[in-house]
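Box 3.1 A note on notation
Throughout this textbook, protein chains are presented in two layers. The first layer is the amino acid sequence; the second is a token string describing backbone geometry. Keep the layers aligned when reading.
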Amino acid sequence: MAILERIEESVIKIPLAGTSKPEIIRELVTILRDAGKIEDVDSIVEAVASREALCSTGLDRGIAVPHAKTTAVPDLTLAIGIAPDGVDYEALDGEPSRFFFLILAPPDQSGPHVQALSEIAKATQSSVLLRMLAAAKTPAEVVELFMD
């Protein structure tokens, strides 16, 4: 599928303005609305928040992968945000999260959803990529990093 190769500048925001988990979630969802990818911000925010209530998707090394299955999207949808100073996202390692990958999928598309999670996990294992993402100043730079 190579979901990361389909990233568009319109679904990337640097820097994120939010300073809390709920603010970051709403901001990422709003990015998708502003890009014309979704319409119903509130139901998607609720779906992502419900998923977060089960277990935080803040991983380690500054990475968070909030995700949800929702009928509010027709197919796999992704937004990326970078918070250079980090945000307390209740990450597994207790450290602030800086790199946010929001994944949304319809309930009947488990395969692409899992594949996207796997692809992001694999890509973010690279310390070099994380350093380059941290240095990125524009959405175009982020897109270029994932195209390489």
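Residues 21-34 form the longest helix (14 residues). The two ends are 16 Å apart (CA to CA).
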